[in-house]
Amino acid sequence: MRCVLCNSGAHKILTNLTKLNERVDQFETELNANATELKKFGERMNKVDIEIKKLRDNVDNMNRSVQKDQISFPDIMKKEMEEEV
Q1: What is the CA 63 to chain-centroid distance, rounded?
Q2: 79 Cβ contact partners less than 8 Å away, ≥ 6 residues apart
């Protein structure tokens, strides 16, 4: 009689352990998939950062170019006065 009770309890424990093991396996699979996606996302973010840096460099270069070519108001007035004289 005792063996029947023990066997019944052991069977329930083994059934639950099997279900738990399947859930852990599923969790590990999903975790690995998420890690892969996170790695891909990180790589994409690095590419975006590189593109943003390029854009900033281009804007900086354009600003320097505009500032270099820009004539100030006093210079314009001086040039006009010289042309009139």
Answers
A1: 29
A2: 71
Span 18-53, pLDDT tens digits: 999 999 999 999 999 999 999 999 999 999 999 999
Give the ranges where the chain is alpha helix by DSSP (H).
Answer: 2-69, 73-84
- Tokens 């852990």 belong to which residue? 24
| Model confidence, pTM | 0.54
**59 class by beta-carbon count within 10 Å (0-12 exposed, 13-18 middle, 19+ buried):** exposed
**What single-letter amino acid sits at 28?**
E
Distances (CA, A) of 66 to 54, 57, 60, 63, 71: 18, 14, 10, 5, 10
